[in-house]
Each structure stands twice: as C-alpha cells, then as structure tokens.
Design the sequence.
C-alpha cells in the first residue's frame, strides 16, 4: 500500500469516527489543507460516506442485539417484590409500546 493510500485510510477512519478535520489530518500525518483537498474529491467523500454508513449500521446492530436483553430485564422487573419497581417497569414497557406504535403509523 502506498504512503498516500495509508494516509487516506487513516484520514477516512478518523473522520468516520467523528474526529474534526484538524484532528484527522494530524492522525493521518497530513496537513489540514491536504485533508480538505481530499474531502473535496468526490471519490474520497463517497468513501467517507460509506465508512460512516457502515459504522452506523454496526452500531444499530449492536443496539438491536441489546434490545432483547433490555426487554428481558423489564419483564423480570415486572416480578420484583417492590411495587414501585413493578410500576416503573410496566410504565416503561407501555410507554415504549405506544411510541413504537406511533412511529409505525406515521
């Protein structure tokens, strides 16, 4: 891999992860001006958009995986001895159910 390709990959990774252009340029060993030139390149901008989309897709996948555990926790709390805990779990479940229903009917 060429030096430019390596620096571009570092710049992409840093920008996709949310770093500022200045921070990403420094991480990639580039000047800020060069980083902005790369961003002006449609091919580079497209790769950056794709990298960001992949990060978001991965994060959503992790959230979906965690949702099952969250639901199981709420269901377990419905059996808690403390009535306030039961009520809180029941309210949370119903509130979220209504929010999902509203979202789906939009």
Sequence:
């Amino acid at each position: 891999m060429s030096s430019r390709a390596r620096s571009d990959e570092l710049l992409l990774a840093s920008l996709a992860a949310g770093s500022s252009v200045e921070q990403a340029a420094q991480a990639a060993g580039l000047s800020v001006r060069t980083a902005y030139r790369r961003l002006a390149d449609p091919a580079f901008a497209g790769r950056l958009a794709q990298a960001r989309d992949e990060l978001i897709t991965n994060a959503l996948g992790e959230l979906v995986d965690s949702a099952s555990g969250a639901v199981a926790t709420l269901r377990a709390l419905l059996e808690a001895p403390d009535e306030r805990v039961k009520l809180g779990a029941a309210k949370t479940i119903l509130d979220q159910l209504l929010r999902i229903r509203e979202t789906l009917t939009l």
The longest helix spans residues 42-77. The chain is about 85% helix and 0% strand. The CA atoms of residues 96 and 102 lie 10 Å apart.
